[in-house]
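Page 42, continued from yesterday. The earlier attempt failed because a stray header line got pasted into the input along with the sequence. Redoing it now with the clean sequence only.
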Amino acid sequence: SWLSPLLARGAKRPLEHADLLTLLPVDSTARNAGALGAALRLQRLRGQPVSVFGAMRHAFGAYFWTTGLMKFINDVFIFVNPMLIRVVVSYIEDKQPGASLSDVQAYLVTASMFGVA
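This time it went through. C-alpha cells are written below.
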C-alpha cells in the first residue's frame, strides 16, 4: 500500500513535499480551480447571481451530485446506528412474553447495525 511507507517515513522525520505522491492531472488544484473559476465567470456573464453551489454544480456535474449523494447516505447511516442500538437495548431490557420484537426481528436489527456501520 502507498500509505505504510509514507507513515514510516513520517515517523522517522518530518515529511517534505518531495515525499508526497503527485496527483493525476484531472485532480490537480490548477484544473479544479480553473473549472470553478470558469463556472463563476459564466454566471456573471449570464447575469445570474453568483453562487458557489451553482458554480460547483456546473463545473463538476455528475461527480458533484454523486459525492453529495454518497455523503448524504453516510450521514443517514451514522444517524441510524444509535437508533438501532436503542432498539436492541430496549429489547434486551424488556425481554418478556409478547415483547414488541420477536427474536428473529431482534437478530435482523442487530445484523442491520453491522450493515450500516
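Notes: The helical segments are 3-12, 29-45, 52-93, 103-116.
Reminder to self: strip header lines before submitting.
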